[in-house]
Design a protein that fits this description.
The complex is a heterotrimer. The model of chain A has no long low-confidence stretch (mean pLDDT 96). Chain A has 16 helices and eleven strands. Helix content of chain A is 39%, strand content 11%. By secondary structure, chain A is α/β, with parallel strands linked by helices. Chain A has one domain (8-311, 395-499): Amidase signature (AS) enzymes, CATH 3.90.1300.10. Chain B folds into three domains: 6-295 and 306-312, no CATH class; 324-436, no CATH class; 444-501, Arc Repressor Mutant, subunit A (Orthogonal Bundle). In chain B, helix 4 (247-266) links the parallel strand 12 and strand 13. In chain B, helix 13 (444-457) crosses helix 15. The mean pLDDT of chain B is 91. By secondary structure, chain C is mainly alpha-helical. Chain C has a domain at 1-45: Histone, subunit A, CATH 1.10.20. Chain C has a two-stranded antiparallel ribbon. Classes of the chains: A alpha/beta, B alpha+beta, C mainly alpha. Chains A and C meet through helix 10, helix 11, helix 12, helix 13 and helix 15 of A and helix 1, helix 2, helix 3, strand 1 and strand 3 of C. Strand 9 of chain B pairs antiparallel with strand 3 of chain C. Chain C: Keywords: ATP-binding, Ligase, Nucleotide-binding, Protein biosynthesis. Chain C: Pfam families: GatC. Chain C: Residues 78-99 are annotated as: Disordered. Chain C: This is Aspartyl/glutamyl-tRNA(Asn/Gln) amidotransferase subunit C. Chain C: It catalyses: L-aspartyl-tRNA(Asn) + L-glutamine + ATP + H2O = L-asparaginyl-tRNA(Asn) + L-glutamate + ADP + phosphate + 2 H(+); L-glutamyl-tRNA(Gln) + L-glutamine + ATP + H2O = L-glutaminyl-tRNA(Gln) + L-glutamate + ADP + phosphate + H(+).
Chain lengths: 507, 505, 99
């Protein structure tokens, strides 16, 4: 039995797993602690769209029973998790943050959902997100914004603001995100949590409601690098249901994280991308300061720092905002009122589709569908979509050249600390700039991580440190990330997330 | 307005046409998911998240469909692209689950081919093939209310069982210079495609079930004046008549459209470039829905699928499996088998060619094979109202049956009984003969006893035979056959009778 | 490249099956024109000689065996349908009165 003094919601997933294995705590206790925490703080935070208390407890009970019976269990069995509402969950409402899917209960599980179930992890619920993952603030959710636990007036990033805020508010130790242009890394950055976008194809997309198919990638979110690595290994691996899935072993993320925690980076070459740093790129002073300090720490652990240039990154944002809307305009066509989801009935099927989509989609979704429809339309394809695909080639070449000079690339994850809710909602271009440093990885398909690098002195809000590795080299992120994390937490006396202001607890 | 006949239209104008044929492949599963590809199931029972277009689902290409498409391309003389890919064709329609169709656009797998088409009089016409590409079929709309058609319906019902069934679309280049033979060529072209897909065994080729569907494009242009080449005369505006689903209808659609367009042109009215619907009942076409704007399908490479890059070795391996051109094979077989034109035409019309060829292959003479398939088996198929190919009997079994006759183990009458047993699922011909005890009685002592019994019973007949009226032996043969339930060899019985009567045959 | 006009947005919205009121068009047209102008720079950099990248990780010939997998039951297939009848999805008439 656990003691009343232990607040399990503050523990890492790795610690929970160990405690479960040692019989210090039961899965039911862990799940209940998190359900209680959700009940206490999720009103104002609004990280969850749907809570499945009974389902989570049922899984927990079964895990506890099996453990009591001495059965062999997966490492994270019994550790609760939150799943971004972009993932299809059989029998659990799935909306991708859109009103057009309100109340939809999928008849099947996403591959990653299935793997989470096979790992025997109780699913606490579905986390909030910008509608169809379009956004960097979660303000575009059809069900209301999620608030940043560091400051409830500020955005938790997006599109996976729910998954990041749930971690920062200690509502879940692990969550799943999806990253099309930074939707895992940017929320991690502004909530002082860890998020990884794996190599494209490293995690099956089957059952992830598609935003932009050639950019989307599911990934793990946690409060520590090791926790994130543990979840990465649960999620990853080949899936024959996704033709773009990589047919290769899951990277050894956990081993890499353990190695990195030894804080020896002798022989590692780290490249700083000139185009993704410095005040001229619109980077906030405190963000740059924390980034520079982190670089010094890496150097102190034996790494060699080199500067590299990626000149095509200047065009990456434009290419991204052509490719994403184009693919999204096609992916979102299926929301047509015929087989599932909202229907606004009119006299003809065409009028019904027009009215349904007008009512079901929010403004940001409409903007991007129109933009994509335009970019693919006759006479414009070559100038927009065709050109953007070429920019993609140039970005890949820049990365190839950069990785010829170093093992990983680093930058601040996002140029600023979290801004206030409503501040950029009517200025799409300003909103898009949040993703300037994260987008190139999606265009090239390479893996990236964001981890906390401290709070900016000027506002006391979290800053994030991004690490990028060549395709298939996801393990490098964990090694470098764990080293930096070990160095920083040694100074902080614990994870940065512990420094977040206490949330007011509802009665 | 002047009303022209087809013949008049062809005198006045030079027709240009093209045909798009959609072939449904007979793979076990759909193009991009593992749902069964079978005709006629209960609605929405062969559907899954992929072919229902549910959020999150992703396509994975059926390798057998790729193989079938490449084999078809090779049979059409096409080049096979080293790297081809799928594209999304975006348009909203309730039977299109994802509201985009996965097809191929700028990089089709098979391109630039040609196909010889043999007309009834033996004339060979070469049709240029632009491309043959893979795509998925749409679901099926049923219209409720009104007359059952889409127009005037109160509402519609959608079944997605057909959605995602693999198709190959074959597109011809513009076909010119056929004049009055245009309709005949169009029909013969589609018939040839149908024969080829059957010979390849990549589709059942059943037009009545929509397994092979044709869209017919037709335009008319003025005939060249003296000193001008017809090739220099620009094409006229074309109509595209959709879903013309029988060979006869193809001929009629060409007739109707040519006459309609000629009437318009001679009346000084323009032909509108448009899609038209074919009406089987009236043998006419009507305009499709007028579009406020040109369709803009916004094609782009399908990001969920990867390029198809068949190795040269694989393509060559597939090339070695391509059967002979059906028309050429027919000519060769007619020659080899010594069939008359009429016999051959009947065989082809009855869909018995492949069956006879296989029966001959199994060791039977062509005439014997023809006798079975065009005789007894055609009668049974007709009674059962099924296609000859659907009968539960194989060419090998027919060859075995004929072999039993040739060996003298059974006679024709017994063979028909044996066939009955085979069709009833009782086993192979030899097994049925054994289990039903149908074998000819060849044991002379048994026959001698039966003959002696019969002669004793009819002494007057014996006397007649001995008097030299040998034909009277027929009555005794009949009696013996009856006594042996038809299992005696009548020739041998006759010999024994004459022996017993002391008369030389 | 010319910027996106209000009439273009109306046409595109129809193509994308999204009904737009005048107010919608007023609001979205301006924002879209700014975005379109900003993304048009993609055409500036890549020349003829640069190949297009469709898939971030190059692979080919990822196919599946032609083997039947279980389908959904008819009930599951239709469970989320806004309207169903006789085992099928029901939709309003496809052609309007004017057709």
């Amino acid at each position: 039995m656990s003691e009343h003094t232990v607040d399990w919601t503050r523990a890492t997933a790795a610690r929970m797993a160990d405690a479960l294995a040692a019989g210090e705590v039961t899965s039911v206790e862990l799940v209940q602690a998190h359900l209680d925490r959700i009940a206490a703080v999720d009103g104002p935070v609004h990280a969850f769209l749907h809570i499945d208390a009974e389902g989570a407890l049922e899984t927990a009970r079964a895990v506890d029973a099996d453990r009591a019976a001495g059965k062999e269990l997966p490492r994270l069995a019994g550790v609760p998790i939150g799943i971004k509402d972009v993932l299809v969950t059989k029998g659990l409402p799935t909306t991708a943050g859109s009103r057009i899917l309100e109340g939809w209960i999928p008849p099947y599980d996403a591959t990653v959902t299935r793997r989470v179930r096979e790992a025997r992890m109780p699913i606490l619920g579905k986390t909030n997100m910008d509608e169809f993952a379009m956004g960097s603030s979660t303000e575009h959710s059809g069900y209301g914004p999620t608030c940043n636990p560091w400051d409830l007036e500020r955005i938790p990033g997006g599109s996976g603001g729910g998954s990041a805020a749930a971690l920062a508010a200690f509502e879940a130790p692990l969550t799943i995100g999806s990253d099309t242009g930074g939707s895992i890394r940017q929320p991690a950055s502004v909530t002082a949590t860890v998020g990884v976008k794996p190599t494209y194809g490293g995690v099956s997309r089957f059952g992830a409601i598609a935003l932009a198919s050639s950019l989307d990638q599911l990934g793990p979110c946690g409060r520590t690098v090791l926790d994130t690595a543990l979840l990465h290994e649960v999620m990853g691996g080949h899936d024959e249901m996704d033709a773009t899935s990589l047919n290769e072993p899951v990277p050894a993320c956990v081993d890499a994280a353990l190695e990195g925690a030894q804080m020896d980076l002798t022989g590692v070459k780290i490249g700083v991308v000139r185009e993704l740093s410095g005040a001229d790129g619109g980077y906030q002073a405190g963000v740059t300061q924390r980034f520079d300090e982190s670089l010094e720490r890496l150097k102190g652990m034996g790494a060699e720092i080199v500067e590299v240039s990626c000149p095509s990154f200047e065009y990456a944002l434009a290419a991204y905002y052509v490719i994403l809307p184009s693919e999204a305009s096609s992916n979102l066509a299926k929301f047509d009122s015929v087989r599932f989801g909202l229907r606004v009935e009119k006299t003809t099927v065409e009028k019904t589709m027009l009215a349904t989509r007008a009512e079901g989609f929010g403004d940001e979704v409409k903007r991007r569908i129109i933009l994509g429809t335009y970019a693919l339309s006759a006479g414009y394809y070559d100038a927009y979509y065709g050109s953007a695909q070429k920019v993609r080639t140039l970005v890949q070449r820049d990365f190839d050249a950069a990785f010829a000079q170093c093992d990983v690339l680093v930058s601040p994850t996002t140029p600023t600390t979290p801004f206030k809710i409503g501040e950029r909602i009517d200025d799409p271009l300003a909103m898009y700039l949040n993703d300037i440093a994260t987008i190139p990885a999606n265009l090239a398909g390479i893996p990236g991580m964001s981890l906390p690098s401290g709070v900016a002195p000027e506002d006391g809000l979290p800053t994030g440190f991004q690490i990028l590795a060549p395709a298939h080299e996801d393990a490098r992120l964990y090694r470098i990330g764990a080293a930096l994390e070990a160095s920083l937490t040694a100074e902080w006396g614990g994870p940065l997330s512990a420094q977040a202001p206490e949330l007011e607890v509802a009665e | 307005m002047t009303t022209m006949t087809y013949e008049q239209a062809m005198e006045e104008f030079d027709p240009v046409f093209g045909i798009e044929v959609h072939v449904e492949l007979n793979t076990k599963t759909k193009m991009f998911c593992g749902c069964a590809n079978e005709f006629g199931a209960e609605p929405n029972t062969q559907v899954c998240p992929v072919c229902l277009g549910l959020p999150g689902a992703m396509p994975v290409t059926n390798d057998k469909a790729v193989e079938s498409a490449i084999r078809l391309g090779l049979a059409l003389g096409c080049s096979i692209r080293e790297s081809s890919r799928f594209a999304r064709k975006n348009y909203f329609y309730p039977d299109l689950a994802k509201d985009y169709q996965i097809s191929q656009y700028d990089e089709p797998t098979c391109y630039e081919g040609s196909l010889d088409v043999v007309l009834d009089d033996g004339t060979v016409v070469t049709i240029g093939i632009e491309r043959a590409h893979m795509e998925e079929d749409a679901g099926k709309n049923t219209h409720v209310g009104g007359t059952g058609g889409i127009q005037g319906a109160d509402y519609s019902l959608v079944d997605y069982n057909r959605g995602g069934v693999p198709l190959v679309e074959i597109v011809t280049k513009p076909i010119t210079g056929m004049g009055a033979r245009t309709a005949e060529v169009a029909r013969a072209y589609v018939a040839t495609i149908r024969d080829i897909v059957r010979a390849l065994d990549i589709s059942d080729g059943r037009m009545e079930q929509g397994s092979v569907r044709a869209d017919v494009n037709l335009s008319l242009r003025p005939k060249a004046v003296a000193g001008e080449s017809q090739d220099d005369v620009p094409f006229g505006k074309r109509s595209e008549t959709k879903n013309v689903n029988s060979l006869r209808a193809i001929e009629r659609a060409v007739h109707f459209e040519a006459a309609r367009q000629a009437s318009l042109l001679l009346g000084g009215q323009p032909v509108v470039q448009e899609t038209r619907h074919w009406h089987e009942d009236t043998s006419s076409t009507t305009p499709g829905r007028s579009k406020e704007e040109a369709e803009d399908y916004r094609y782009f490479p399908e990001p969920d699928l990867l390029p198809v890059e068949p190795s040269r070795e694989w393509v060559e391996e597939l090339r070695s499996t391509i059967p002979e051109h059906p028309a050429k094979m027919r000519a060769r077989l007619r020659e080899e088998w010594g069939f008359s034109d009429l016999e051959m035409r009947d065989v082809v019309a009855a869909d018995a060619l492949i069956l006879i060829a296989a029966t001959v292959q199994a060791g039977t003479t062509a005439q014997a094979a023809r006798k079975w398939w065009m005789g007894e088996l055609s009668r049974v198929a007709n009674d059962r109202e099924v296609a000859l190919t659907a009968l539960p009997v194989t060419p090998d079994a027919i060859a075995e049956l004929q072999g039993l006759i040739d060996e003298g183990k059974i006679n024709d009458k017994l063979a028909r009984q044996a066939l009955e047993g085979v069709l009833a699922g009782e086993g192979s011909p030899a097994e049925v003969v054994a289990s039903r005890g149908l074998e000819v009685v060849s044991d002379d002592s048994a026959l001698e006893k039966a003959v002696d019994d019969a002669l004793a019973a009819q002494p007057d007949v014996l006397a007649k035979i001995q008097d030299g009226k040998v034909q009277a032996a027929g009555a005794i043969v009949g009696a013996v056959m009856k006594a042996t339930r038809g299992q005696a060899d009548a020739g041998r019985v006759r010999e024994i009778i004459l022996q017993r009567a002391g008369v030389e045959g | 490249m010319s910027s996106l006009e209000r009439s273009d947005v109306a046409r595109l919205a129809a193509l994308a099956r999204i009904d737009m009121t005048d107010a919608d068009l007023d609001r979205l047209s301006g924002q879209l024109a700014v975005i379109v102008d900003a993304v048009a720079k993609v055409a500036e950099v890549a020349g003829e000689d640069v190949p297009a990248t469709s898939h971030p990780i190059p692979m080919a010939n990822i196919h599946r065996e032609d083997e039947v997998r279980p389908s959904l039951s008819q009930d599951d297939a239709l469970a989320a349908a806004p309207e169903a009848e006789d085992g099928r999805f029901r939709v309003p008439q496809i052609l309007g009165e004017e057709a």
